[in-house]
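Please check this chain.
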Amino acid sequence: MTKPIKKAVFPVAGIGSRFLPATKASPKEMLPIVDKPLIQYAVEEAISAGITELIFVTSSSKRAIEDHFDSNFELEAKLIKSGHLEFLDIVRQILPKEVSCSYIRQPDTLGLGHAVLCAKPLINDQPFAVLLADDLITIEKKSCLAQMVAAYEKTKHSIIAVQEIAPSESDKYGMVKLADLDNGLGKIQQIVEKPSSKNAPSNLGVVGRYILTPAIFTYLENTGAGIGGEIQLTDAIAELLKNEPVYAWQFTGTRYDCGNKLGYLEATVAFALNHPEVGAEFREFISSLPNARPV
């Protein structure tokens, strides 16, 4: 019987150098998209897919993430006293009561593969999800991870989210070659970390959503430093697929790469335009920009 996907790993130990000085004292995962931090969008996606155990692989500078998902009795008391009960509901609904959080330190920032390996003591022998908060993906009928969980229930094997990318961008992604692609699902034949455009096996790049079987830990433990001197999750997956099938899922939804400034700004504008509170007025403001003077 296939074990359900109930655990998700969130690698959040990175220093966010591309957003300095904003990330000097605040984690990049806490950067807001309108009124919610990036990490909350990722957590909400995980919960929508049935995840009940959240595992954050963190560092000493990321206490704000832990505080965000913890109760704040002083704040709640002030909101009650001031009569702002609508804000009280927002604060209390950040995390459902049936969902738990665990935090484990990544002692050195040695790459995504190393971050996932740090979570091994909390995963044990269960399949699990990995979500990168940098990749913000809109929800259509189902979230990206919910789509992948449904696919996992059919395949019983590891699944990686992919999307078509420009050939010139291949050196920023893990790139895959598929045996076939049927209704968004395809078996991976080859996966390569950040190849040049001429060496990329296809135009399908890996984005920050994974469902992995616990077998991945064996390969992570034996994976040496790869590109950038880091332990690459892609390299471990390349070894895993030599011994068991690994699938790719071409998801529905729009992805914003919030790991860079342009993608972050694009996400902010897109989400603001559709925000129920400010969307209409923001759309009016955007339409006025061609006639506005530079600030």
In short: The mean pLDDT is 90. The CA atoms of residues 173 and 194 lie 5 Å apart. The chain has one domain: 7-291. Residues 261-273 form the longest helix (13 residues).
